[in-house]
Write a structure and sequence with these properties.
With 378 residues, this protein is an alpha+beta fold. It is 33% helix and 17% strand. It has helices at 63-70, 74-88, 94-97, 140-144, 165-179, 193-220, 266-285, 316-325, 335-341, 364-377; strands spanning 3-11, 26-28, 35-40, 53-58, 107-113, 186-189, 237-240, 256-259, 294-295, 300-305, 331-334, 351-356, 360-363. The strands form 4 sheets. It has a 5-stranded antiparallel sheet, with helices on one face. Strands 8-13-9 form a 3-stranded antiparallel sheet. Strands 10-12-11 form a 3-stranded antiparallel sheet. α6 runs parallel beside α10. The longest helix has 28 residues, at 193-220. The protein starts with a strand and ends with a helix. Mean pLDDT is 75; it is low at 44-48, 115-137, 149-168 and 221-229.
Length: 378
């Protein structure tokens, strides 16, 4: 199937005329935009704008180039096209002549893919190359050999296809970089519970933004520029983890972890209160019963001395203040109340406790399984 992209860039003046490039002028490059045409008629919806002098940057038709361009937001595609022109004509200062403040009005981005969906013009030329001939055939095997971390693919690896030494070196490098590099909207470092939760929330937020972008694109698309994309490129979120997700090397190891809302630090108590309904939402989204991931059946009892001062886990006096200030619904228990209510006996006389019904423990394995399912779903 034929795939490609094209970017129209319109300027207040035809600066390429200063370079002796006029109607039907074009540049064929080994840059991301394989073909550039000058003095292109502006798309109909852009003709009302005063900047009618336009350049068209078209990508190659290969899957690697298609993935590169079609994975970009419109503004990113425009910026890449301007960068190509800047490299082709460094003395012009193309970027300074482009109206970035009104880029929506002076540019247009179009993608196509599939049989019967080709451009209105014939685009997609990259380097003009010729078949290997004569002694050059002796290096065909070397050209096709992968040299980690670069893995060469493409026509240049076929001695009977279109290839040349110059084209092979350039296209192999460009293709290897393209196929081994991926653009992501968000990259999360660490695949523990916090990392996985951050990735899932990022996907949800990006999907909301994408829906808004799709509405904007449908509004921008019109009969003057057939085929204008009405859907935004898919969102991509990556999680980087040294080990497998759910491994035993990080802070999310073991089978369970405590979840409590009573903290010395007020910001942690506030964060835990915000997290509690999100745990229930996670269970619902994963199709699990309430309590399957965050179990609060028995609540959470924090016991200790009143006069120890702050410890690594906090101190009862400060926790009690935060419980009251944040209206967390904590129960403050004396030593005798604790012994009467829970299977504890002979506690020191100085002991007291705080009980919270909406705290408990997290089932780590079940949570990782649920998060992985949701990540694959999105």
């Amino acid at each position: 199937a034929s795939c490609g992209s094209e970017v129209h860039l319109c300027f207040a003046r035809p600066w390429w005329h200063d370079l002796g490039i006029h109607a039907a002028g074009h540049s064929t490059t080994d840059l991301p935009s394989g073909l550039v045409r000058y003095d292109i008629q502006a798309p109909v919806q852009r003709q009302q704008h005063q900047q009618r002098h336009c350049v068209l940057a078209a990508s190659g038709r290969g899957p690697a180039q298609a993935n590169l361009w079609q994975g970009l937001q419109d503004l990113e595609a425009v910026a890449l096209a301007v960068e190509v022109l800047d490299k082709l004509h460094p003395a012009v200062g193309v970027a300074s002549q482009f109206d970035w403040d009104h880029w929506h009005n002076v540019s247009a981005v179009r993608h196509w893919c599939g049989h019967g969906a080709a451009s209105q013009r014939s685009f997609g030329a990259g380097l003009e190359v010729r078949p290997l001939q004569g002694g050059a055939r002796s290096i065909a095997t070397d050209l096709a050999r992968s040299v980690p971390p670069a893995y060469f693919v493409g026509a240049h690896t076929d001695p009977d296809g279109m290839a040349s030494l110059r084209g092979a070196v350039r296209s192999a490098t460009a293709t290897a970089i393209t196929v081994t590099s991926y653009a992501y909207d968000v990259v999360v470092v660490g695949g523990g519970l916090m990392g996985m939760a951050a990735a899932i929330e990022a996907v949800k937020l990006l999907e909301q933004q994408q829906q808004q972008q799709n509405q904007d694109r449908k509004h921008r698309a019109g009969p003057g520029f057939p085929g204008f994309p009405t859907t935004a490129p898919p969102t991509r979120v990556a999680v980087l983890e040294t080990w497998d997700v759910g491994n035993s090397h990080g802070s999310s190891a073991a089978d369970t972890r405590q979840f409590r809302q009573m903290y010395n630090q007020r910001h942690l108590a506030e964060a835990a209160a915000l997290a509690f309904p999100m745990w229930r939402e996670l269970e619902r989204e994963a199709g699990l019963p309430q309590g399957a991931l965050l179990n609060t059946d028995n609540g959470y009892l924090f016991v200790g001395k009143e006069d120890t001062g702050e410890t690594i886990e906090g101190d009862l006096a400060t926790m009690r203040k935060n419980c009251v200030a944040l209206n967390q619904g904590c129960e403050f228990l004396s030593r005798s109340e604790i012994e009467k209510r829970f299977p504890l006996a002979d506690l020191p006389a100085s002991y007291s406790g705080i009980f919270h019904k909406d705290s408990g423990f997290v089932d780590l394995k079940a949570t990782f399984d649920a998060m992985l399912r949701l990540a694959k779903k999105h």
